[in-house]
Fold these 4 entries.
Entry 1:
Amino acid sequence: MNAFFNELFDYNFYCNKKIIDQCLVMDTVPNKSQELFSHILNAHHIWNARILGKPSDFNPWETHPINAWGDIHYENQRTSFEIVTNADGFDKRIDYENSEGRLFTNTLQDMLFHIINHSTNHRGQIAVDFRSNQLEPLVFDYVFYKR
């Protein structure tokens, strides 16, 4: 399971890094894309914090300046790799509060997979936002990553 999650987080890192690099050289990044990518970063951070039983430094929809994305992204990935490396078992159940204060329990496996799936969903929304702003979206297909 470690190898599986390491591969998924490598892919996630690659895709998010492509967005960061692209947006850093653009004259104007659509506001919606900035909001969505900040949300990707915030949610990843929040889920890592939940897994580790720590408070989160970010709110789900807090917007970050584009030049801060790289550092947040790197720290999120480093923390996730540390979680995967040190996992006693991926079926371990973890209690946490959601952003509305409701209590839930999920397995570590479910939480880690959610980080990846959530990021993928919002990267798709960013691609749509790029296209609606007459910008060519980046390609994030997993098969292209594996080539």
Entry 2:
Amino acid sequence: MSQNLYEIPLTSIQGTAQTLERFKGKVLLVVNVASKCGLTPQYEGLEKLYERKHAEGLEVLGFPSNDFLGQEPGTEAEIQEFCKLTYDVKFPLFSKVTVVGDKKHPLYRELTHAFPAATGEGPMRARLQGYGINPNPVPEVQWNFEKFLIGRDGRVAGRFTPDVTADDPRLVQAIDAELAKQA
């Protein structure tokens, strides 16, 4: 039984209980983020995307995760400070969650169930293997900075591998298509 994404309990990075309900009718880009990853500079592109498309109805939502080689070891306060000082992140951040395995957060359980395959599959998996890392099997989240696109209607509309950046035409076109739809 699938759970309504808007009803799943979440916690903001400031420690406030909330849900995605406050974002209902907007297009959401949910990203598992990390401060000590080779992909961490993607924060910059995600912030630029947020600034460019926020007025049209896009929300970028960052979910710190320490699931991949301990690349997000900080506390919520440390993560928030890093994001602000290093990348001037203004998009909403949430408390640290688990995005893989048996203890996977309910939001990520729903996202991976709703959209098991990711656009861009292949190169990142090969890169991880080149580093001697055995990537998670589909439908698990592969690594930090995997992106899930949720349409205005609350349905998962797309999924993009960690190496698909915020300015990748495949991601931008998918976001624009969702922004063009009515709630």
Entry 3:
Amino acid sequence: MKGLLHVFNGGRLEISDKYSFDVPQIQSEMDWKILVDDFLSNSEKFANQVEQLPDNLLDEPFVDEKYGSYLRNIEGVIEHSYYHLGQVSLIKKMISK
């Protein structure tokens, strides 16, 4: 979401799959809290930004036509978040048994 927010705010598209695992190691409860707080903050900002987008922008290319439309990317990040929520739910069930 952070990368999409950057684009929504006029920045360049700088996210890439090659950076998918470039997350600082979680070595303490504070590290975890910072990661969660950052995610929740970006999620709220993302929802607010999407709400403010003009309808006609949704069908426009997102940065470049090869990336599809704004709508495709918005739906994609939402679906990807559901995927990770499912992973968290399964892991939580596994460790609570």
Entry 4:
Amino acid sequence: MRNVINNVLGLCLILVVISCKQEANKSKKESYQLEGQIAGLVDGTVVKLVPGATHSSEPAVAETVLKDGKFSFSGKLEEPRFFYIMFGNYRGAIPVMLENSNITITATGIVSDAENGSIGFEDEVVEGSESHNYYAKETAFKDELNKEYEDYHKGTEEMSKALGQARASGDKDRLDSIERTPEYKIFEKKEKTFFDKAERTSKNLITKHKDNWWGPFFMLTQYTYLTPEERPIFDQFSEAAKTSYYGRIVKEELYPKTLIGTNVASFSLNDKDGKSLKAKDIISGNKYILIDFWASWCAPCRKEIPNLKEAYKKYSNKGFEIISVSIDKDEEAWHKALKQENMTWPNLYDDGKVSKTFKVKAIPATFLVDENGVVIADNLRGEALEEKLAKLLKL
């Protein structure tokens, strides 16, 4: 009799478990619905959903416009993903971690009086995404770091301005003079303490999540770019973390497949006048062509332009050409930079796809190709570029 009762109870428990699983599956959404309400911005403002945390210039996966201050997006995700909700011509953004659930975002947009009319946001509230809540909790330490950064910079404004001017003008004597002052020594010590703490905190955050996709995700958000020095951090991840969406992105950046030996001449992009130019037509008739990815806002890129001009002046009549490709999001900023820099070689505007094909993660990024459009070297700048060209052109 007891066996019968136990069997009946066991059957009941099985039925209860099955019922609970069925209810759980019903409650678990298979897609996301994102609803936004933004005050302070005019109707018709373009709103784009752009993937973030990829270290790449990603095209929008969806686009709409504000109507009565509202916008919405919907879709399906295999796992939570980080996005930027971009407003206007990439003039402002709200970060959000999307997952398959009903998510709402409210905020007030503030348009600045600056030339580009950048948009800031106040009173941002994201509801309905557990992943976003977790992301916010795990990265709350950034508020403390930001305060510490502001604190040790207080009272150093004049010194920082003088340093910037000395570096911009290349005045080494002035730079050395400033760096010998007691004020700079104190500042330097505080800065080292700050960055040591920031690096330690970031590594702890990543290591804490080494067994799931959050680990590689935080690598992408905590580091502006990745180098071979970060490989030991990635190597400690679980297999599940390494093979996740963000894990694959990190692996590709840390262990990149070289484009050397690859033909890259099949792309075409628009120039400043909106005319489509084919790379193969520019390459045709030249011996060696440097494809240079840059942006108006990239200080190292702008600093490299005089070196490019010198190489162009020296080798352009011997079969050397340059194709500069801007990854600027703001096309007007690109046009302004072109006028300032006066680069006399072909300048093209990236469509978001070409830079991705070249696996551009950080700029400046350069690829030297031969007359057939095959990459023969990469990341050549300054003296290294000149030495390579001199050797190839036997000068």
